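SEVERITY: medium
COMPONENT: batch folding queue
REPORTER: lab tech (J.R.)

DESCRIPTION
The queue accepted two submissions in a row. Attaching both inputs and their returned C-alpha cells so the on-call engineer can compare them side by side.

ATTACHMENT 1
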Amino acid sequence: MTFRSLSSRSLVLAMSLLAAGASSAAAQRQAAPGSARATAQRTLNAFAQRNAEAFAREVSPEDLAGFRTQLLPQLKTALSGQQREQALAMIAPARSYEEAEKLPAERLYAIYMGAVMKRVATAGSVTITNTILGEVPEGDSLVHVVYRQHFRQGANDAASVKVLSLRRTPGGWKVKLDQPGLAAQPGR
C-alpha cells in the first residue's frame, strides 16, 4: 500500500468521521458523566468542530498504539520516496520520520487526523446532523452507541444509521477505531 492510497482512504474516513461529528440538538441531551454516551457525544462534537486533538483524546489507547504501529512503516517508506512532500504535510509540524517516531501515539494520531480534516474541509460545504438513538451494551466493557446521521452537500442528501463502538479502559470509555466508518488504521 502506498502513502497515496493511505491518504485517499484517510479522506474517505475523514468524511465519514466528519459526518459523524456534526451533531444535532437532540443528540446533545444530557448523558450521565463518565458514560459511554457522554464519550460518544464528546467524540461527535470533536468532529463537528474539526478538532482532531479532542477526538484523539477520546480514542482507546490500545487503538492509538495500533494506529501508530501501522502508520510508522508506511510513513518511513513515503518519506523516502516520491510522496515525501505529501507525507511531510500529513505529519507537520514534525519535519522528519525521526521526529514523528518520537511523538506519543495520541499526538501522532491527532496530527495525522488534523491533516486529513483539513483536506476534507476543501471539499466544500457539508451539513451533517446526528441524533443519538441509544446504546447497546455488549458485556461490561463494550458499548455500541447508535445514531442517525443526516448528510447534505449541495443537492446531495442522505440519511443513515451508524454505530460508534466504545470500550471501557482504566481511563474511562474510549472509542474503538477498528470498526466500519472509523477504520482509521492505515493499511485497512
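ATTACHMENT 2
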Amino acid sequence: MAAKTISEGRRVQGTAEVLHERAGRLVGYLVSHNEEEAQAVTFYDSSSTSGTVLHKVWIPAGEVVYIRFGMSSAREEANIERSAIPFSAGLAVDPGLCDVAVWAIGYG
C-alpha cells in the first residue's frame, strides 16, 4: 500500500498552488472572502495550476462555505477514502480572491 500524506487544512490565498503531485482524494475545504460579488474557487486534477477541473465552487458574497465530502459523523470518517473526490495526476487549487483551507489525502 502506498504511503498517505494528509493535508490538515492547508491554507491557500492569493495565488494558485499545487497541494499534491500524485493521486489522492479531496476530503473537504473551507472558503471565505470579503468581496462584494460571488467568487470562484477551482480545484484541478493536475500537478500544475491548470488542467482538468476536478471541482469548482462559487462562494456568495459575505458567505463562509465548509464542505467535508460524505462525512456527517465520526462513524463515517472511517469511510473517507470512499466518499472524498478522487484525483489522479495531482491536486491544485486556484483560490481566486478567496481564502481557502483544503483537506486532502495524497498517495505516494
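NOTES FROM REPORTER
The domain at 4-107 is CATH 2.60.120 (Jelly Rolls).
No errors were logged for either attachment.
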